[in-house]
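Structure in, sequence out. Go:
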């Protein structure tokens, strides 16, 4: 087992494979995932210009409000799944046993 070296590249919001590893699949970029990547000039302007910062905050608040129903749905889904760990574990074990029996019969 050799050493694997992977470093982060914050400038491009990515990972760089240095040694012992090669990239087999391309991941989606931040913009393809719907993320907003802020340029350096824009970061500086956010720190200096209060009106620009206010506009930016308003856009962020609007986007958060737009995404809120989907996030609420994900939170409720996660709560329902994790309510009863024993039951979920029992269902998964049962499914695994059935699949194992089917594979053994083939």
């Amino acid at each position: 087992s050799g050493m694997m070296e992977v470093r982060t590249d914050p400038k491009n919001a990515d990972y760089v494979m240095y040694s012992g590893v090669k990239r087999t699949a391309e991941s989606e970029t931040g913009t393809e995932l719907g993320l907003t990547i802020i340029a350096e000039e824009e970061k500086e302007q956010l720190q200096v210009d209060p009106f620009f910062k206010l506009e930016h905050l308003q856009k962020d608040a609007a986007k958060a409000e737009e995404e809120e129903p989907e996030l609420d749905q994900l939170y409720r889904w996660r709560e329902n799944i994790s309510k009863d760990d024993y039951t979920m574990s029992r269902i998964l074990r049962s499914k695994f046993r059935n699949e194992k029996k089917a594979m053994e019969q083939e």
